[in-house]
Amino acid sequence: MPGQEYSDPGTFLLSLQYYSSFAPSIAASAAAAAASCSWRAVQPPFAFGAYAYTTYITGMAYGVDIWAGQIDVRLRKHKPALHLIAAVPFRGFEDRWSTDWKRAYQELLEQADLVKCICPGYNAGAYQRRNEWMVDHSSRVIAVFNGEPSGTKNTIDYAKRNGVLCCYLEL
Most Cβ neighbours (<10 Å): which of 101, 103, 131, 165? Predict the structure, then answer.
């Protein structure tokens, strides 16, 4: 994918955070909320239908990130123009996950149009650099967020500071 393609108005960041209390149904809820535009906006609300989003970025964390990526892949059956970018913070990011999550991660990487590995290995800033890269290459940010200090909150704050519209599904 050319660099310009994922910084155009059709790019939408799926910056999502997993909490162990989430059930898989949160992905369906997120998709339904997106379809109905029932997001609490950090900045003024916007209509999803008013924009031709064709490229989605996911941070590839287990839970909502992967579920959102899987939704994008499923939607390609009806909208083949959709693209998925997997933004991986560092190589080996998934090493300590359960077998099921590792399998879902690998399957999603295989289906992504672009896999962007931000850092070659773990370091203290890898997650923040990944989050900033995603925002820097997006025209909109959507997050599943519980309001607590976290990487997702940092991503939302960074997006706001950089003028990127941001909305989130409040838990």
Answer: 131
Beta bridge partner(s), residue 13: 57, 141
The pair of structure tokens assigned to 109 is 């990487």
On whether the CB atoms of residues 61 and 18 are closer than 8 A, the answer is yes
Q: What is the pLDDT of residue 33?
A: 44
Q: Which helix (H) or strand (E) holds 75?
A: helix 64-75
pLDDT tens, 2-29?
Answer: 332 333 333 444 433 332 233 344 444 4
Q: How far apart are CA 89 and CA 116, in angstroms?
A: 8
What pLDDT does residue 116 have?
Answer: 96
Q: Is the pLDDT reported for residue 43 higher than 60?
A: no
| Residue 81: DSSP 8-state | T
Tally Cβ neighbours within 10 Å of residue 118: 21
Check residue 5 and report its DSSP letter: G
Question: What are the phi and psi torsion angles at 14 (to 5°)?
Answer: -100, 90
